[in-house]
Amino acid sequence: MGRKTPKSKEKLDKRKEEKALLAEHTALVNKANSQTNPLSSFPAFTKFSKNGLDVTLDCKRVADMDESLIHSIFNLEKENMKNLYDECSWGWNDKKKMEEMTEEAARYLMAKNEAGELVAFSHFRFDLDYGDPVLYCYELQLKQEVRRKGLGKFMMQVLELIAFTSNLHKVILTVLKHNPAAVEFYKALKYEVDETSPQNSVFEEECHYEILSKLNKKIFKT
Ligand SMILES: CC(C)(COP(=O)(O)OP(=O)(O)OC[C@H]1O[C@@H](n2cnc3c(N)ncnc32)[C@H](O)[C@@H]1OP(=O)(O)O)[C@@H](O)C(=O)NCCC(=O)NCCS
To answer: Any idea where the N-acetyltransferase domain is (predicted)?
Structure first.
């Protein structure tokens, strides 16, 4: 057995550093995931009464939701997104979408009207994304009649509050480029193209989606 050269020591130190960082990031995600209801720390954010809307917000893990609620969520998702999925290579598939929406890690931020009917939801998860601890917003879906009244913006602000107080590095999401309302909405909320977003190149087919994110300013000071 030969002695360690300075170069291999450098490599070893770097690997140790990377391992420590991954452990730190995993611990942040695990801590966020240990919360049953991350919204319970922010009671002021459980109501949205503005522009003629009066809704109550609630946050649940998918395992704590009953079947009829899951179906209301799925139906809203399908109503809003089926055509957009069918217009690109993703294609809509009921079974695949239901599986994704009910995976164990799925959490839901939900808005209900005074009659207790679901009017909006966000499917989100606490996760590692390329090693970074993030809140991944899988979906934000509002019924037609509650749009353009500030509820979508409020729900994204709630997700940001949850993510950043949990010391996660960013809120991240995927948006279809042929969904101009959503593109404009995230632009208005100051989401930017994430470093992990696929880049179009002359060698590749144009990509129909983009990955957008907002960084945690406490961690990434400008
Ligand atoms: C996209 C969506 C979530 C936006 O939610 P919303 O509550 O309607 O949006 P808000 O009222 O909070 O809008 C905030 C700002 O975003 C921008 N914006 C929102 N909708 C827009 C639209 N259709 N066109 C252009 N800009 C828009 C505006 O700047 C708006 O501010 P303003 O109303 O003061 O001009 C909602 O329209 C929706 O659920 N759409 C169908 C599903 C969908 O596409 N989801 C996104 C999947 S990634």
So the answer is: 68-218
For 144, how many CA atoms within 13 A lie in the half-sphere containing its CB? 4
pLDDT digit string (tens) for the chain, length 222 residues: 566 677 788 999 999 999 999 999 999 999 999 999 999 999 999 999 999 999 999 999 999 999 999 999 999 999 999 999 999 999 999 999 999 999 999 999 999 999 999 999 999 999 999 999 999 999 999 999 999 999 999 999 999 999 999 999 999 999 999 999 999 999 999 999 999 999 865 555 678 999 999 999 999 987
Protein residue closest via CA to atom 26 of ligand 1: 184
3-state SS of 100-126 is HHCCCCCEEEEEECCCCCEEEEEEEEE
Question: 153: CA distance to ligand 1 center in Å?
Answer: 7
**137 touches 172 (CB < 8 A):** yes
Domain 35-215 has CATH 3.40.50.720: no
Question: Is residue 101 within 8 Å of residue 123, measured between CB atoms?
Answer: yes
What distance in angstroms lies between residue 147's CA and the mean position of ligand 1's atoms?
7
> What DSSP character marks residue 3?
P
